[in-house]
Amino acid sequence: MDFSYIDAIHAALNDSLRDDDRVFLYGQDIGKFGGAFKATKGLQDLYPGRVLDAPISEDAMAGVAMGAALEGMRPVLEMQFADFSTIALNQIVNHAATHFYRTGVPVPMTVRLPSGGTPGSGPFHSQSLEAIYASFPGLVVVTPATVADAYQMLVESIQLEDPVIFCEHKFLYRWLKSSTLQGDGLPIGKARITRAGKHATVVTYSAMVHEAVRAAEMLYDEGGWEIEVVDLRSIKPIDTDTVIASVARTGRLLAVGEAFPWGGVTAEIVSRVAADAFHLLDAPPARLNARDTPIPYHPKLWADHRPTPQTIAASLRNLLKY
Protein backbone atom coordinates (compact mmCIF):
# COMPACT_ATOMS: atom_id res chain seq x y z
CA MET A 1 0.00 0.00 0.00
CA ASP A 2 1.24 3.48 -0.87
CA PHE A 3 0.64 6.37 1.50
CA SER A 4 0.25 9.90 0.18
CA TYR A 5 1.38 13.01 2.03
CA ILE A 6 -2.24 13.74 3.02
CA ASP A 7 -2.63 10.12 4.15
CA ALA A 8 0.34 10.65 6.45
CA ILE A 9 -1.24 13.71 8.01
CA HIS A 10 -4.55 11.87 8.46
CA ALA A 11 -2.73 8.94 10.08
CA ALA A 12 -0.80 11.23 12.42
CA LEU A 13 -4.01 12.91 13.53
CA ASN A 14 -5.76 9.56 14.01
CA ASP A 15 -2.89 8.07 15.99
CA SER A 16 -2.54 11.15 18.16
CA LEU A 17 -6.27 11.14 18.96
CA ARG A 18 -6.12 7.42 19.71
CA ASP A 19 -3.05 7.60 21.95
CA ASP A 20 -3.76 10.75 23.95
CA ASP A 21 -7.18 11.73 25.29
CA ARG A 22 -6.02 15.34 25.61
CA VAL A 23 -5.76 15.75 21.83
CA PHE A 24 -8.64 17.31 19.95
CA LEU A 25 -9.00 18.84 16.47
CA TYR A 26 -10.57 22.21 15.79
CA GLY A 27 -11.16 23.94 12.46
CA GLN A 28 -13.63 25.07 9.84
CA ASP A 29 -15.62 22.22 8.27
CA ILE A 30 -13.28 19.54 9.64
CA GLY A 31 -16.10 17.38 11.05
CA LYS A 32 -18.48 15.59 8.70
CA PHE A 33 -17.02 17.40 5.70
CA GLY A 34 -13.48 16.31 6.57
CA GLY A 35 -11.79 19.66 6.03
CA ALA A 36 -10.92 21.58 2.87
CA PHE A 37 -8.39 18.89 1.87
CA LYS A 38 -10.04 15.90 3.62
CA ALA A 39 -7.22 15.55 6.14
CA THR A 40 -9.76 14.83 8.90
CA LYS A 41 -12.21 12.74 6.88
CA GLY A 42 -13.92 10.15 9.07
CA LEU A 43 -12.23 11.18 12.30
CA GLN A 44 -15.31 12.80 13.84
CA ASP A 45 -17.12 9.44 13.68
CA LEU A 46 -14.19 7.68 15.33
CA TYR A 47 -13.68 10.31 18.04
CA PRO A 48 -17.02 11.93 18.89
CA GLY A 49 -16.70 15.28 20.64
CA ARG A 50 -13.00 15.63 19.78
CA VAL A 51 -13.17 16.75 16.12
CA LEU A 52 -14.93 20.08 16.31
CA ASP A 53 -16.14 22.48 13.65
CA ALA A 54 -15.10 26.08 14.29
CA PRO A 55 -16.72 29.39 13.35
CA ILE A 56 -15.27 31.35 10.44
CA SER A 57 -13.00 33.38 12.69
CA GLU A 58 -9.35 32.39 12.75
CA ASP A 59 -8.73 34.82 15.60
CA ALA A 60 -11.38 33.14 17.75
CA MET A 61 -10.15 29.69 16.74
CA ALA A 62 -6.62 30.42 17.89
CA GLY A 63 -7.88 31.94 21.12
CA VAL A 64 -9.96 28.87 21.91
CA ALA A 65 -7.01 26.57 21.12
CA MET A 66 -4.67 28.56 23.35
CA GLY A 67 -7.14 28.55 26.22
CA ALA A 68 -7.65 24.80 25.89
CA ALA A 69 -3.87 24.24 25.83
CA LEU A 70 -3.48 26.27 29.01
CA GLU A 71 -6.10 24.03 30.64
CA GLY A 72 -4.13 20.87 29.83
CA MET A 73 -5.49 19.90 26.41
CA ARG A 74 -3.52 19.30 23.20
CA PRO A 75 -5.43 21.20 20.49
CA VAL A 76 -4.59 20.75 16.82
CA LEU A 77 -5.90 23.71 14.90
CA GLU A 78 -6.51 23.48 11.13
CA MET A 79 -6.40 26.68 9.13
CA GLN A 80 -8.09 26.10 5.77
CA PHE A 81 -5.18 27.89 4.09
CA ALA A 82 -1.97 29.27 5.57
CA ASP A 83 -2.88 32.72 4.22
CA PHE A 84 -5.90 32.92 6.54
CA SER A 85 -3.76 32.42 9.64
CA THR A 86 -2.69 36.07 9.49
CA ILE A 87 -6.11 36.90 10.94
CA ALA A 88 -4.98 35.01 14.06
CA LEU A 89 -1.50 36.52 14.14
CA ASN A 90 -2.10 38.41 17.38
CA GLN A 91 -3.22 35.29 19.25
CA ILE A 92 -0.35 33.19 17.92
CA VAL A 93 2.65 35.52 18.12
CA ASN A 94 1.70 37.91 20.93
CA HIS A 95 0.06 35.41 23.24
CA ALA A 96 0.85 31.75 22.51
CA ALA A 97 4.48 32.38 21.55
CA THR A 98 5.25 34.50 24.61
CA HIS A 99 3.19 32.79 27.29
CA PHE A 100 5.81 30.39 28.63
CA TYR A 101 8.40 33.18 28.74
CA ARG A 102 6.00 35.40 30.69
CA THR A 103 4.47 32.87 33.06
CA GLY A 104 6.33 29.56 32.96
CA VAL A 105 3.14 27.87 31.75
CA PRO A 106 3.49 26.10 28.35
CA VAL A 107 1.01 26.33 25.46
CA PRO A 108 1.12 22.92 23.70
CA MET A 109 -0.95 23.73 20.63
CA THR A 110 -0.30 22.80 17.00
CA VAL A 111 -1.45 25.01 14.12
CA ARG A 112 -1.64 23.21 10.78
CA LEU A 113 -1.05 25.53 7.82
CA PRO A 114 -1.78 24.19 4.31
CA SER A 115 1.00 26.17 2.65
CA GLY A 116 2.49 26.96 -0.72
CA GLY A 117 1.09 27.22 -4.19
CA THR A 118 -0.89 25.03 -6.54
CA PRO A 119 -1.96 25.88 -10.09
CA GLY A 120 -4.87 28.30 -10.16
CA SER A 121 -4.92 29.11 -6.44
CA GLY A 122 -3.87 32.75 -6.74
CA PRO A 123 -2.68 35.28 -4.16
CA PHE A 124 -5.01 34.41 -1.26
CA HIS A 125 -4.51 30.64 -1.17
CA SER A 126 -0.85 30.06 -2.08
CA GLN A 127 1.43 31.88 0.32
CA SER A 128 4.33 30.45 2.30
CA LEU A 129 4.35 32.17 5.70
CA GLU A 130 6.91 30.08 7.55
CA ALA A 131 9.46 32.90 7.84
CA ILE A 132 6.92 35.26 9.39
CA TYR A 133 6.25 32.82 12.21
CA ALA A 134 9.92 31.90 12.57
CA SER A 135 10.65 35.56 13.32
CA PHE A 136 8.94 35.25 16.69
CA PRO A 137 10.67 33.53 19.64
CA GLY A 138 8.63 30.82 21.30
CA LEU A 139 7.24 29.16 18.17
CA VAL A 140 8.46 25.96 16.55
CA VAL A 141 8.08 26.03 12.75
CA VAL A 142 8.04 22.69 10.92
CA THR A 143 8.21 22.20 7.13
CA PRO A 144 8.09 18.49 6.19
CA ALA A 145 9.04 17.51 2.65
CA THR A 146 8.42 13.75 2.76
CA VAL A 147 5.53 11.43 3.54
CA ALA A 148 7.35 9.94 6.53
CA ASP A 149 8.22 13.37 7.89
CA ALA A 150 4.64 14.57 7.46
CA TYR A 151 3.56 11.70 9.70
CA GLN A 152 6.36 11.62 12.25
CA MET A 153 6.84 15.36 12.61
CA LEU A 154 3.12 15.98 13.11
CA VAL A 155 2.98 13.33 15.84
CA GLU A 156 6.07 14.89 17.43
CA SER A 157 4.64 18.41 17.08
CA ILE A 158 1.47 17.45 18.96
CA GLN A 159 3.58 16.00 21.77
CA LEU A 160 5.75 19.11 22.18
CA GLU A 161 5.16 21.55 25.02
CA ASP A 162 5.70 24.51 22.68
CA PRO A 163 3.25 26.01 20.19
CA VAL A 164 4.03 24.60 16.75
CA ILE A 165 3.36 26.02 13.30
CA PHE A 166 3.09 22.96 11.05
CA CYS A 167 3.54 24.00 7.41
CA GLU A 168 2.23 21.21 5.18
CA HIS A 169 2.57 21.82 1.46
CA LYS A 170 -0.66 21.52 -0.54
CA PHE A 171 1.17 20.65 -3.75
CA LEU A 172 2.50 17.49 -2.08
CA TYR A 173 -0.82 16.30 -0.68
CA ARG A 174 -1.77 13.76 -3.31
CA TRP A 175 1.09 13.22 -5.72
CA LEU A 176 3.86 12.52 -3.19
CA LYS A 177 3.67 8.89 -2.09
CA SER A 178 5.65 6.38 -0.09
CA SER A 179 5.31 2.71 0.77
CA THR A 180 5.81 3.47 4.47
CA LEU A 181 5.13 6.11 7.11
CA GLN A 182 8.28 5.16 8.99
CA GLY A 183 11.24 7.46 8.48
CA ASP A 184 14.78 7.66 9.80
CA GLY A 185 13.79 9.01 13.20
CA LEU A 186 15.41 12.43 12.86
CA PRO A 187 13.97 14.83 15.45
CA ILE A 188 12.54 18.27 14.79
CA GLY A 189 15.49 20.64 14.48
CA LYS A 190 17.74 18.23 12.57
CA ALA A 191 18.26 18.62 8.80
CA ARG A 192 18.67 15.73 6.38
CA ILE A 193 21.08 15.21 3.50
CA THR A 194 18.55 14.18 0.87
CA ARG A 195 21.11 13.80 -1.91
CA ALA A 196 24.86 13.65 -1.38
CA GLY A 197 27.21 15.67 -3.59
CA LYS A 198 30.54 17.43 -3.76
CA HIS A 199 30.30 20.35 -6.22
CA ALA A 200 27.61 22.59 -4.68
CA THR A 201 25.05 22.60 -1.88
CA VAL A 202 21.35 23.42 -2.25
CA VAL A 203 19.67 24.18 1.07
CA THR A 204 15.88 24.10 0.92
CA TYR A 205 12.74 22.72 2.56
CA SER A 206 9.17 21.59 1.94
CA ALA A 207 8.14 21.10 -1.72
CA MET A 208 11.30 22.76 -3.01
CA VAL A 209 13.31 19.73 -1.85
CA HIS A 210 11.83 17.74 -4.73
CA GLU A 211 12.42 20.52 -7.25
CA ALA A 212 16.05 20.78 -6.07
CA VAL A 213 16.57 17.03 -6.45
CA ARG A 214 15.24 17.22 -10.02
CA ALA A 215 17.62 20.09 -10.75
CA ALA A 216 20.50 18.07 -9.30
CA GLU A 217 19.59 15.14 -11.53
CA MET A 218 19.55 17.43 -14.59
CA LEU A 219 23.04 18.74 -13.83
CA TYR A 220 24.40 15.27 -13.21
CA ASP A 221 23.01 14.05 -16.53
CA GLU A 222 24.37 17.00 -18.48
CA GLY A 223 27.82 17.34 -16.92
CA GLY A 224 28.40 14.89 -14.10
CA TRP A 225 27.94 17.62 -11.49
CA GLU A 226 27.21 16.19 -8.05
CA ILE A 227 24.87 18.53 -6.18
CA GLU A 228 24.19 18.01 -2.49
CA VAL A 229 20.62 18.74 -1.38
CA VAL A 230 19.95 19.59 2.27
CA ASP A 231 16.35 19.37 3.52
CA LEU A 232 16.04 21.66 6.56
CA ARG A 233 12.83 19.87 7.72
CA SER A 234 12.22 22.58 10.31
CA ILE A 235 13.21 26.21 10.12
CA LYS A 236 12.74 27.05 13.79
CA PRO A 237 14.88 25.54 15.17
CA ILE A 238 17.21 25.55 12.17
CA ASP A 239 20.13 23.14 11.79
CA THR A 240 23.00 25.45 10.87
CA ASP A 241 25.61 22.79 11.68
CA THR A 242 24.43 20.43 8.94
CA VAL A 243 24.31 23.30 6.45
CA ILE A 244 27.84 24.44 7.24
CA ALA A 245 29.14 20.87 7.14
CA SER A 246 27.68 20.51 3.66
CA VAL A 247 29.21 23.79 2.50
CA ALA A 248 32.55 22.59 3.87
CA ARG A 249 32.30 19.61 1.51
CA THR A 250 31.19 21.54 -1.58
CA GLY A 251 32.41 25.14 -1.24
CA ARG A 252 29.26 26.54 -2.88
CA LEU A 253 25.81 27.41 -1.55
CA LEU A 254 22.42 28.01 -3.16
CA ALA A 255 19.47 28.55 -0.80
CA VAL A 256 16.08 27.90 -2.39
CA GLY A 257 12.60 28.73 -1.09
CA GLU A 258 9.10 29.13 -2.48
CA ALA A 259 8.34 32.13 -0.28
CA PHE A 260 8.78 35.75 -1.34
CA PRO A 261 12.41 36.91 -1.61
CA TRP A 262 12.39 39.76 0.92
CA GLY A 263 14.04 38.44 4.09
CA GLY A 264 12.97 34.94 4.84
CA VAL A 265 14.57 31.54 5.26
CA THR A 266 16.94 31.73 2.29
CA ALA A 267 18.26 35.09 3.48
CA GLU A 268 18.81 33.61 6.94
CA ILE A 269 20.75 30.66 5.51
CA VAL A 270 22.97 32.88 3.36
CA SER A 271 23.55 35.24 6.29
CA ARG A 272 24.56 32.45 8.66
CA VAL A 273 26.90 30.82 6.19
CA ALA A 274 28.48 34.15 5.25
CA ALA A 275 28.98 35.03 8.92
CA ASP A 276 30.14 31.67 10.25
CA ALA A 277 31.61 29.83 7.25
CA PHE A 278 32.85 32.50 4.85
CA HIS A 279 36.27 30.84 4.77
CA LEU A 280 34.70 27.66 3.39
CA LEU A 281 33.13 29.32 0.34
CA ASP A 282 34.65 29.17 -3.13
CA ALA A 283 31.92 31.39 -4.60
CA PRO A 284 29.51 34.02 -3.28
CA PRO A 285 26.47 32.35 -1.67
CA ALA A 286 23.31 32.65 -3.76
CA ARG A 287 19.61 32.34 -3.15
CA LEU A 288 16.51 31.77 -5.26
CA ASN A 289 12.92 32.50 -4.27
CA ALA A 290 9.57 33.16 -5.86
CA ARG A 291 9.19 36.49 -7.62
CA ASP A 292 8.49 39.57 -5.51
CA THR A 293 4.88 39.93 -6.67
CA PRO A 294 1.54 38.60 -5.46
CA ILE A 295 1.08 35.00 -6.58
CA PRO A 296 -0.72 34.84 -9.95
CA TYR A 297 -3.83 32.78 -10.68
CA HIS A 298 -2.95 31.59 -14.17
CA PRO A 299 -1.17 28.22 -14.01
CA LYS A 300 1.46 29.27 -16.54
CA LEU A 301 2.19 32.49 -14.69
CA TRP A 302 2.28 30.59 -11.42
CA ALA A 303 4.79 28.13 -12.88
CA ASP A 304 7.00 31.08 -13.82
CA HIS A 305 6.54 32.74 -10.44
CA ARG A 306 8.05 30.04 -8.24
CA PRO A 307 11.43 28.28 -8.48
CA THR A 308 11.42 25.27 -10.77
CA PRO A 309 14.00 22.58 -11.55
CA GLN A 310 14.99 24.64 -14.59
CA THR A 311 15.54 27.91 -12.68
CA ILE A 312 17.31 26.09 -9.84
CA ALA A 313 19.59 24.39 -12.37
CA ALA A 314 20.30 27.76 -14.03
CA SER A 315 21.27 29.29 -10.68
CA LEU A 316 23.52 26.33 -9.97
CA ARG A 317 25.24 26.65 -13.35
CA ASN A 318 26.11 30.26 -12.55
CA LEU A 319 27.42 29.19 -9.16
CA LEU A 320 29.51 26.39 -10.63
CA LYS A 321 31.04 28.72 -13.26
CA TYR A 322 32.37 31.15 -10.64
TrEMBL record:
This is Alpha-ketoacid dehydrogenase subunit beta. It comes from Persicirhabdus sediminis. PANTHER family: PYRUVATE DEHYDROGENASE E1 COMPONENT BETA SUBUNIT (PTHR43257), PYRUVATE DEHYDROGENASE E1 COMPONENT SUBUNIT BETA (PTHR43257:SF2). Keywords: Oxidoreductase, Thiamine pyrophosphate. One of its GO terms (molecular function) is oxidoreductase activity. Its cofactor is thiamine diphosphate. Residues 3-175 form the Transketolase-like pyrimidine-binding domain. The keyword Acetylation does not apply. InterPro entries: THDP-binding (IPR029061), Transketo_C/PFOR_II (IPR009014), Transketolase-like_Pyr-bd (IPR005475), Transketolase_C (IPR033248). It holds the Pfam family Transketolase_C.
